[in-house]
Amino acid sequence: MQTAKVVRMERPVAKGVVQAACSSCSLAHLCLPTGLEHSDLERMDGLVSRSEPMHEGEHLYRTGDAFDAVFAVRSGTFKTYTVDSEGREHVLGFHLPGELMGLKAIYPHRHITNTMALDTATVCLLPFDELNSLAASIPGLQGQLVRLMSRDLAEAVTLAGDFTAEERLAAFLTGLSRRYAERGFSATEFNLTMSRRDMANFLRLAPETVSRVFARFEKDRLIAIDRRAVTLLQPEKLHALAKCMEDMCA
Hints:
Number of helices: 8
Number of strands: 12
Strand order of the largest sheet: 1-2-9-4-7
Largest sheet: 5 strands, antiparallel
Strand content: 15-25%
Shape: globular
CATH architecture of the largest domain: Sandwich
Number of domains: 2
Radius of gyration: 19 Å
CATH superfamily of the largest domain: Jelly Rolls
Helix content: 25-40%
CATH class of the largest domain: Mainly Beta
Structural class: alpha+beta
Distance between the termini: 40 Å
Low-confidence stretches: 1-19
Order of helices and strands: EHHEEEEEEEEHHHEHHEEH
């Protein structure tokens, strides 16, 4: 397998990295607590920088890399995964614009996962020591980081539950629907940037099972698929199927 190059970002701003502004970002409400004063946003502007575009297959960081920053997805999609001692890959999540990555590295102070771009993507870099110091003086910022880490834990617990393949795939699709809607995109028409194999791995299902459930959903007119584009034709029925999993995260 070809090794993708790693995008290196350092402070002060290095080549290929430019200053970013939280105060003018349309995604700030997703990765920052609501109700921040304009002066607080300007303080955030002083520490955030933006990466150059990454391409499909390139890694933002790998297991074992030193931890010095968290990353907010600015555009594109990322996959977080680990590889066990037998060489088997375990997909832990998919990240959309406005979502933070790298939080799992705070405790060990090194990255314990790999994070790879699934398409053309950019990130904002938030140096953790500076972010942590700023959080002490900005109400809600530290709480936001804790909430985001808690959400990752809740998702992992949910996936460990005893749910059917139909419930798992319905919950995955309705979850993507909600996340895209939060970003101002269509809640019923979006692209699946991840492969079926990665999707199956994340849902703890066999790839052929995911393909079979997709086919069943199409036959029942719950969804329509055109290559990677999916349309939710009856989102209310998908929500009903996914309700038992959604209730665990409520």
